[in-house]
Write a structure and sequence with these properties.
heterodimer; A: mainly alpha; two-stranded antiparallel sheet; globular; B: mainly alpha
């Protein structure tokens, strides 16, 4: 990619210059900051309705390894090209499809997550301070949402500073709180003896785990593009998901097994860890939600080229309003998270699969571009297809199979099916097109001087 | 070795030693605390000490001002953040900490946060690296 002036802020549509790259620890802190959120603990609690403690851990670890591999592959594309997910997608899916795919992956999905976690922030605040009007769910959702917008408005530097400040503390507080919660609810022996109310096959748990964080794996390039060395960012992603995500989800799941209906926040408040809940609730939600908004703004810049900060403000306000509306109408429920996680887990992996297949297989093996740095060219004047039809077919078919097959064979992990089938189908279709000389690109788009 | 490197390394070492002393005091008071707190808080204090010592080793081996600054900032962020644990966790009645131990922990935690923040800002000035390294 030719280096062009950054017109939209935080290099939304251009290459990250060498001077702005960051260390391995920086990337690890950013990723762990995304993970340091109560929604992940609650997701683990949802698993407890299906599995005992040992099976829960196994399903989460397998799911996390799958996520780690997917994100390593997507993240490496980001660290080599120094471009965001949505800019990378221009080559594999076509410029027009990259806009729509970006909106599905982040533009809309990440805003929904932002709204959900802003609402959850309100729930936590009301749970800790039930008698203070300023902490009512709907009120806390509003000021919390606006607070979380601030670092996303500033950009990557602010995300890093906040993550450095809170992440190490968060990952010490959580295991301490879990140990206390297990102790007061019967101890390890009771945990190992606890049985789930509605046992399910391990595949359901793997799918659910992958679904919870597959968006994060897909958009890993949004952060790894800042990686100083090519493997720093991808390795940071792998480590944070394989080592730390199981701890977080197990924390929620273990407590749910021991004391059904009691979440970890309530348990922490119950044993007097009020200030720890405030710290992890306020800043923990913040380090996750600003990343949601940050990625959403990058995706929107790829569709409508205005300053990235404007998109942060627009989507942040929309997300905050949605959070307040949820607070006024829905109340506290894990059901919303289950539906959202399953939906995202079904439709987004095929997009990551196409991105991975194009960079690692199609470009080097079918098109002969062996040199990694030359696989994707961009910059002013670069010509893209508007639509790359094999990518569209692969995404639609893979997404459909991921949704449909688990309904017939509940033990089959739908996310893996969706990812695998899209990967295979895209490679097959591209092979046929390239070998037989069939045109795979429809229309054309010439990149402007501003990178749009 | 340039004057800037010597000055920055010397300042970091002083800051880090302050954090190390505070962490050792934390470990000492937690070892003498209630059974429920002993294991968890001692593990926390040991973790803090390990991070501080590793950070010192990394800074000692830094070859230029930028690398020194980055490693110093990373170490100081860790001790600053972990200071928050000593401030927020001990007040929980579950741990059954005595009032003096709780008060000492909160004060030492606050000192870790404040000295860490001061160290970060000073190292940034001395080395010119970002706080978001």
């Amino acid at each position: 990619m030719t280096e062009v002036k950054d017109h939209f802020g935080d290099y939304a549509l251009t290459k990250i210059p060498e001077s702005e790259t960051r260390t391995f620890l920086n990337q690890l802190m950013i990723f762990m900051g995304v993970l340091a959120v109560w929604a992940a603990v609650f997701a683990g609690a949802a698993l407890a309705s299906w599995f005992d403690a040992a099976t829960l851990v196994v399903s989460v670890v397998i799911g996390c390894i799958i996520l780690g591999v997917i994100a390593y592959l997507t993240g490496y594309i980001g660290s080599r090209t120094r471009a965001s997910t949505y800019v990378i997608l221009r080559h594999s899916t076509g410029r027009g499809v990259a806009m729509i795919a970006g909106l599905i992956i982040s533009g809309i999905s990440a805003t929904i997550w932002f709204a959900y976690e802003t609402w959850l922030f309100g729930v936590i605040m009301q749970g800790v301070f039930p008698d203070i009007p300023f902490m009512r769910v709907e009120v806390a959702s509003i000021w919390g949402g606006l607070l979380m917008m601030t670092t996303a408005l500033i950009g990557y530097r602010a995300l890093s500073v906040l993550s450095y400040f809170i992440v190490p503390a968060w990952f010490v507080i959580l295991p301490m709180a879990l140990a206390a919660a297990i102790d007061i609810n019967g101890g390890w022996a009771a945990l190992m003896a606890a049985k789930p109310p509605t046992p399910a096959d391990i595949g359901v748990g793997i799918t659910f785990t992958v679904g919870v964080y597959i968006v994060g794996a897909t958009i890993a390039p949004d952060v790894t593009r800042f990686s100083r060395k090519p493997h720093d960012g991808p390795l940071a992603w792998f480590i944070h998901v394989v080592l730390f995500m199981p701890i977080i989800m197990a924390a929620g799941g273990f407590l749910q097994l021991l004391a059904p209906g009691v979440n970890l926040v309530a348990a922490m408040v119950g044993v007097g860890m009020v200030w720890a809940v405030v710290l992890t609730g306020v800043v923990g939600q913040w380090t996750t939600n600003d990343n949601n908004l940050y990625s959403s703004s990058l995706a929107w810049c790829n569709v409508i080229p205005i300053k990235r900060a404007y998109w942060v403000a627009i989507m942040g306000i929309i997300g905050t309003i949605i959070a307040a509306l949820i607070a006024l109408g829905f109340g506290v429920s894990l059901e919303a998270l289950l539906i959202l996680g399953t939906l995202l887990g079904t439709w987004i992996p095929p997009m990551a699969a196409v991105m991975i297949a194009d960079f690692y297989v199609v470009k080097p093996s079918l098109m002969g571009v062996k040199v990694v740095e030359k696989r994707y060219d961009w910059g002013p004047g670069t010509v893209y297809h508007l639509v790359n039809w094999p990518a569209v077919v692969a995404i639609v078919v893979g997404g459909f199979l991921a949704w449909w097959i688990p309904q017939i064979y509940p033990t089959v992990p739908g996310v893996v099916i969706g990812f695998g089938s899209s990967l295979a189908l895209f490679i097959i279709l591209m092979t046929v097109c390239v070998k037989l000389g069939v045109k795979y690109g429809i229309g054309k788009w010439v990149e402007t001087g501003k990178g749009f | 070795m340039s004057v800037e490197i010597v000055t920055a390394r010397s300042f970091f070492t002083r800051s880090n030693m302050v954090a190390l002393v505070l962490a050792i005091i934390l470990l000492f008071i937690f070892l003498l605390s209630s059974p429920k707190a002993q294991a968890l808080f001692s593990a926390y204090a040991i973790l803090l000490i390990i991070f501080i010592l590793i950070g010192q080793l990394r800074v000692n081996r830094a070859v230029d001002l930028k690398q020194l600054g980055e490693r110093a900032v990373q170490t100081l962020w860790l001790s600053t953040s972990l200071g928050l644990v000593a401030v927020t966790m001990p007040p929980a009645p579950y741990f059954e900490l005595s009032q003096p131990v709780m008060a000492a922990s909160i004060i030492i935690g606050a000192m870790l946060v404040i000295s860490g923040a001061y160290g970060l800002l000073t190292i940034r000035k001395l080395t010119g690296v970002y706080l978001s390294v």
